[in-house]
Design a protein that fits this description.
The protein is of the alpha/beta class. The chain has a single domain, classed as Metallo-dependent phosphatases (Purple Acid Phosphatase, chain A, domain 2). It has helices at about 1-10, 30-35, 45-60, 85-95, 110-115, 120-130, 150, 160-175, 210-220, and strands at about 20-25, 70, 105, 135-140, 140-145, 180-185, 225-230, 235-240, 245, 260-265, 270-280. Helix 3 (about 45-60) packs parallel to helix 4. The structure holds zinc ion (ZN).
Length: about 290
């Protein structure tokens, strides 16, 4: 976790220099694969292997990615539940194998802070992974990480939602005062899966419609053109005006027909391109 803190404190990469690559991965969710198989005693060897293999591939990648996002749901067991400590321990052990010069960017998911977070679960998250919302600059790009669980269910933490909202307005003002190439948002839960006005699916995957529209309007108006999310365990995505909601499938267990994998994101001066790869097909050379 050390490299992540250093990244936030020391990152002065506010100027654009050249195209670069970053990785968006999400939902390693250690324990889900056995849970879906209906096993009573859970193991997470498969998730450990997938995460190790993905990190090996990221370490080998040329050019070296500027950062690696883990977009939430690190482990399956909710705060306070059995297996959580061991799952977290194994997850962090896998992350330790990432090259130290590739900073980690965490965005928290519902399994990290609970479906209905409390001050205690947020404190625990902050202790283990740092701030649950923050901004950073890298290669001339301004990035904002949000805690989307405040938008999903903030019954016990309404004051924290207000703080994040106020903070976001201030940060969007900072962005507007400078000349960054892109504004990118990372959050676990997507605003929508395919269509802005789609009906919520049976898993209630997305942010509810009134808040969704309000947030998309605000982010788009401020200059955001990309929101990277997960939570759906399938690849999806769509457009709100010219803002792209990208939904990346899981590094761990799948709920659709995709293979476990991650997304390689290529950042150019005037555009951002991205492609999802299964773990065993992650390319070594990225053409920029
Ligand atoms: Zn989730």
């Amino acid at each position: 976790m050390q490299c992540f803190d250093n990244f936030k404190k020391n990152n002065k990469e506010s100027q654009w220099t050249e195209p670069f690559v970053f990785i968006h991965s999400t939902d390693p969710q250690f324990g889900l694969i056995d849970r879906m198989a209906g096993k009573h005693v859970l193991k997470w060897d498969k998730e450990i292997q997938l995460t190790r293999d993905a990190i090996k591939a990221v370490n080998r990648m040329q050019p070296k990615p500027k950062f690696l996002v883990v977009g939430g749901d690190f482990v399956h067991s909710m705060p306070g539940n059995a297996d959580r400590n061991q799952q977290m321990c194994d997850f962090q052990m896998c992350l330790d194998q990432l090259d130290k010069d590739i900073p980690l960017v965490f965005a928290c998911g519902n399994h990290d802070v609970g479906d209905c977070p409390t001050n205690d679960t947020i404190d625990e998250y902050r202790r283990d992974f740092g701030d649950d919302y923050y901004w950073f600059t890298c290669g001339g790009v301004f990035s904002i990480v949000l805690n989307s669980q405040y938008y999903k269910d903030d019954t016990h933490v309404k004051d924290l939602t207000k703080k994040q909202d106020k903070w976001l307005d201030e940060v969007l003002d900072i962005y507007k005062q400078h000349n960054y190439k892109h504004l990118v948002v990372f959050q676990h839960i997507p605003y929508f899966l395919r269509e802005v006005y789609e009906k919520d699916d049976r898993f209630k995957t997305c942010i509810k419609e009134d808040l969704r529209i309000k947030m998309l309007y605000k982010l788009h108006k401020s200059g955001a053109r990309y929101v990277f999310s997960g939570h759906y365990h399938s690849n999806a995505g769509g457009m709100y005006k010219d803002l792209e909601q990208v939904v990346t499938s899981a590094l761990g267990g799948q709920l659709g027909t995709d293979q476990s994998g991650l997304r390689v994101v290529k950042v150019y001066e005037n555009s951002i391109q991205h492609q999802y790869y299964s773990v065993d097909e992650i390319p070594e050379i990225i053409q920029l």
